[in-house]
Amino acid sequence: MIVLAGLLIGAAYGALSAKRRGGRGLDMLQYGAAYAILLALIGLFLTIYLHRTLAG
Asked: Is residue 23 within 8 Å of 36, Cβ to Cβ?
């Protein structure tokens, strides 16, 4: 669930970031995809870390 949350938050944040900088539709798509991938990877590593430390 952390991975999906990171994916959605990253996509929204990236699109809004590109829009604030005056980007067009494809710019917003690219920024959204890049931030989504980045935050999904961070969420994946966080999930693995939590699973390994809490599951014993």
From this structure: no
